[in-house]
Amino acid sequence: MALETSTLKFLVTDIVSQKSDVPANFVRPEHERPNLCTIEEVPNETIPVIDLNGPNHQQIVDAIGQACEIHGFFMVTNHGIPKELVNAMLRVGREFFHLPEPERNHLCSEEPLKAVRLTSGFNATAEHVRMWRDALKLQCHPIEEYIDQWPINPPDFREVTAEYSKQGRELGVRITELISESLGLENEFLEEAMGGQLPLLAVNYYPPCPQPDLVLGFNPHTDANSITVILHDEISGLEVLRDGKWVRVPPVKDSFTVIIGDQIQVLSNDKYKSVIHRVTLTSKSERFSVPIFFRPSNKIPIKPADKLVNEKNPAVYRPYFYKEYISTVWSNGLNVPTLLNYFKV
Question: Residue 283: CA atoms inside 13 Å, Cβ hemisphere, count?
């Protein structure tokens, strides 16, 4: 359903331009507020940072396996995506959200299957409290099938985003192969077990928030897909749940953050864990990120890898198609962090 932006301020971007305080429908109940003064920062030495260009392939595989098992996320450096392209992608994303309303808001939609849509939060119609995030979401593979639907402003948006999504997809496939190897499987196993992955690119915009202690940029959740490869700007905001406490993950220069999603947890038969994470805000700065979500196709059912199932480790999850999983997540509106229990045997 397209939104009539002339009569309704749907995007946080447009609401914040007219208000100096937080509207009531964004204010979290007291027990859900971020309590920013108590947030710890992940010590740099405990952040799993993996050099993808390291000389020892097995060490890279082992480091990824350890990060997936213990942390549920890691960062990659020497990933092969040029810094100039990274900077250009952040620039065109920023320029898009700074366009006048009429030049962008015709893309507003709450229809999750649209190939191109500008939206706010996750599923605003199902959220108990709104989230302080706008997102431009783009289907991007195959590029030639979707590029003509992408925004035409800023003028180089399509050119930059096409090249970034192409190289980002190649990076995601490479990381998936390394995760597969780390499980003792053939490197192409996970890609094939998901029927080939379909990337979805988003440009996330978190405007400055006048009362960041009352609001969340994004609710606590696990990612429903397989992996998410995230480009961040230099502003902190990503937090992960570690030992029952929220800890902030500081940006690491020239890196991408890789989040392990629910489908990897299922395929690994719970050996690897999808990490619960959220986004907090600041009153001083806007924040941008560009995640690429790698999603299974609906060609074959998702289930634990046969090689990881035995008498001592029986299958934890029943077979299901990804469309069933994502439909459950969508209707829930991220009002609970994870829905994996619905799909257990």
Answer: 9
Q: How do strand 287-296 and strand 197-206 relate by DSSP bridges?
A: antiparallel
User: Which residues, 6+ apart, have CB-to-CB distance to 100 below 8 Å?
Assistant: none
In DSSP notation, 127-178 reads: -SS--S-EEEEEE-SSHHHHGGGS---STTHHHHHHHHHHHHHHHHHHHHHH
Instruction: Name the DSSP letter for residue 108.
Output: B
With the CA atoms of 148, 149, 152 and 158 taken in that order, what torsion angle do they form, in degrees rounded to the nearest 10?
A: -60
CB-CB contact of 246 with 34 (8 Å): yes
Q: How far apart are CA 194 and CA 259, in angstroms?
A: 17
What letter represents residue 162's amino acid? A
Closest CA to 138 of 155, 125, 151: 151
Angle at 237 between CA 86 and CA 218, to 5 degrees: 105
112 residue type, one letter: P
What is the b/e burial string over 80-95, where b = at least 16 CB atoms within 10 angstroms of the residue's CB? ebeeebbebbbebbee
Distance CA 196, CA 87 (A): 29
**Environment class of residue 203 by beta-carbon count within 10 Å: exposed (0-12), middle (13-18) or buried (19+)?**
buried
Residue type present at position 121: G
Residue 75, φ and ψ in degrees, nearest 5: -115, 150
Amino acid, single-letter form, for residue 192: E
User: Is the distance from CB of 225 to CB of 293 less than 8 angstroms?
Assistant: yes
Average pLDDT, whole number, for the chain? 92
Does pTM surpass 0.90?
Answer: yes
Token pair 């199902």 in the structure block, residue: 126
What single-letter amino acid sits at 19? K
Residue pLDDT, tens place only, 58-80: 999 999 999 999 999 999 999 99
What gap in Å lies between CA 201 and CA 110, rounded to an integer? 17
Helix (H, G, I), strand (E, B) or coil at 145: helix
